[in-house]
Every structure is written in C-alpha cells, then in structure tokens.
Amino acid sequence: MKKWKKQLLCTLAVSAMAFSLSPQMDAEAAYSLSDEVTTATPALLNATQIGVLEGGNTDLSKLPNKDAILVMSFGTTYTDTRAATIGATVKRIEAQHPGVKVVTAFTSHIIIDRIKKNEGITYPTPEEALAQLKAEGYTRVAMTSLNVIPGMEYDYNRAVFHLYKNNFKKLTLGTPLIYWQGQEDQADDVTEALKAISTQFPKTGKKDAILLMNHGTPHPSNAYYSVMQARLAEMGMDNVYIYTVEGWPSLETIIPKLHEKGIKNVTLMPMMMVAGDHANNDMAGDEDDSQKSILEKEGFKVSTYLHGLGENKAVRDLFAARAEDSWKALRK
Fold first, then answer.
1. Contact (Cβ atoms closer than 8 angstroms) between residue 271 and residue 232
2. Does the first or last residue of the chain, that is N or C, have fewer Cβ atoms within 10 Å of its Cβ?
3. Sign (positive/negative) of CA torsion 65, 103, 325, 166?
4. Strand, helix or coil at 81?
5. pLDDT tens digit sequence for 263-275
6. Would you kindly state where each structural domain of the chain is located, as residue ranges?
7. CATH topology for 201-306?
8. Are 216 and 247 a contacting pair, CB within 8 Å?
9. Which sequence positions are flagged as catalytic?
10. What is the number of other CB atoms lying within 10 angstroms of the CB of residue 98?
11. Which tens digit of pLDDT belongs to each residue from 280-291?
C-alpha cells in the first residue's frame, strides 16, 4: 500500500465569531455576519465565505467583459481514464457553454511533469492558467473543481482563488461534487451524489456488498465519509460501504462488518474521479497487499469495477451543475 505523501497547503484558521444564518436554497447560500458586527476585518469576511466564492478588483470594473472557465482537477497519468473521465467532463461543460473558452488545469505538479515527459502534453497549474488568461485579456473567470469533497486539493483551489482574485474584474470558485449536506435548508449534495453513483451499482442480494474506495485524507474533511455512510443507511443501501486508501475508515474497519452480515461476494468500486493508480493497483492489483487480495484471503469472492466517477453520466451532469453555479455567479 502506498503511504500518504504530506503536502503543505495554506489554510485559514478562524477565531470565534458572531454570525447569523441566511438560509437560501440556491448554490450560493452562505452565512452572513450579524448586524452587530460593525468592524469586520478582511480575515473575518473571508472566513464567513462559504459555498460559491466571489471576488474581484473594483479598479478593473470599467474593463469590458471577456469571460472564461477554468476547470481544475488533480489529474492522472493514465491516458485512457483521463480521456473517459476528466476529458469527458470538460467536454460536458464546454457543451453547456458554446463559444466560451474552457481551460483545464491540474493541481498535481508531479502528474503535470510526468505527462509532459512521457506524452509531450503540457497541462498548466491553476496559477499558470490564470496568468495566461490574464495575459490574453480575459477579465472574468469562473473557476470550477472536479474534486469529490472539499479536502486538501480543494483548499489549494481556494488558496489560488484568494491569491488571484484581485487580478481580475471578477473571479468565482464553485464547490466540489459533495459540499452541502442538507443542513440548515441547504442542498443535500451527499444524497444527490450517492444517487448518481448508484446508477452504476450491480444488482445485489443479501450476501452481496459494494465497497466504495475513496482516497482518504488527514484533512478534517475526512469526516465526509462518515456522513456518506450514514446517508447510505438512510437511503436503504445497507450493503454499500465506504472505505479509504489513506484515511478512515480503512478496509480493515469494514471487513468485520462484512463477516458479521454474512457477506460472501463483494464488488470493489473507486469513488474517485479517475480509475488511476489507486484503483488499478491498491484496489484491484494482484499484489498480496492489494485490497482485492486481502479480501480474497478473508474468504470473499471479489469483483472489481475499474471505472472512475467521470465515466458516469449522472456524475458528469453534477460536475457540470457545479460549474454552472460558478458561471452564474460570475455573470450576475
């Protein structure tokens, strides 16, 4: 199994604050400061920005509108799944916005370097993409993410947004696939996404289970996996289990539950944008420490589903909807 490679990202630490809820049903719903707060600092204002983010430089307000969309993904060196997932999702977003410039950027610098070396293709980082758009005269950019949860990679996107928002007349950043949890009358992205993913589930009986492999993270957003598992139970999907490669719950957390329920057959399925290294090696590989091998040693009959979420049309539609939220915020 691969060990977690630590990454250093800028994060925002927030002190206690007074705020009041402004419930809205649209994707830009957020919390607003209490009227009693009369001297809000920039840090406090940034801390209360959730949902779709909006920023810009008022000194550039007289510039003509020239709009673009920036799609950000971690990326993958697996060419086939890259085309079938990231590429297909970008095409879905492009079809939604004919005539609009759409740029794809990868957040993994290692993957960018490997693709350039092995394929001769250069993908920009989000920073490079925004700098290029600025040089080409684009004044408004809608940023959108192909991340599943708002973890470390999405924090990278947020950091880029805040660093570059003053370079444009307007800059927006949409939410990842799963963000809102249905709290305080907000949208329920968790249920919406799980329903979309369930369209690819095989038929199951009492002795069958589906195991959804997620990445896992030391980021507090790892808690989303517990929310997903609870929501699956509420949806009546008691034979579907969430586990992670590099977080909690691990596969070892799930195995006793499978034995307790008398499960005999399991289907391993990546709950990741692409079916890359984790799916092909950590999940479905033939090595003794792969998840497939571990389960087989435990007496289970194992099937594998080697397709990333981006191959699922229902999921692509949701990512396109997240992009549309950012686009609408850009143009309002």
1. no
2. C
3. negative
4. helix
5. 999 999 999 999 9
6. 53-180+315-331, 201-306
7. Rossmann fold (3.40.50)
8. yes
9. 215
10. 6
11. 999 999 999 999
The torsion defined by the Cα of 172, 175, 181 and 185, in degrees rounded to 10, comes to: 30
Contacts for 76 with CB less than 8 Å, ≥ 6 apart: 82, 85, 86, 111, 274, 276, 277
- As to burial, measured by CB atoms within 10 angstroms (0-12 exposed, 13-18 middle, 19+ buried), residue 37 is middle
Report the alpha-carbon distance of residue 281 to residue 298 in Å, rounded. Answer: 19
The Cβ of residue 7 has, within 10 Å, a number of other Cβ atoms equal to 14
Tens of pLDDT, residues 177-198: 999 999 888 899 999 999 999 9
Concatenate the DSSP letters of all residues of 143-206 into one string.
EEE--SSSSHHHHHHHHHHHHHGGGSSEEEE---SS--BSGGG--BHHHHHHHHHHTTPPP--T
| CA-to-CA separations, 243 to 249, 271, 295, in angstroms, rounded | 5, 9, 13
Q: Do 172 and 330 meet the contact criterion of CB atoms below 8 Å apart?
A: yes
Task: Please determine whether the domains at 53-180+315-331 and 201-306 fall in the same fold group of CATH.
Answer: yes
**pLDDT given for residue 60 in this prediction:** 98
By CB atoms closer than 10 A (0-12, 13-18, 19+), residue 5 is: exposed
What CATH fold (topology level) applies to the domain 53-180+315-331? Answer: Rossmann fold (3.40.50)
Q: pLDDT per residue over 245-260, tens digit each?
A: 999 999 999 999 999 9
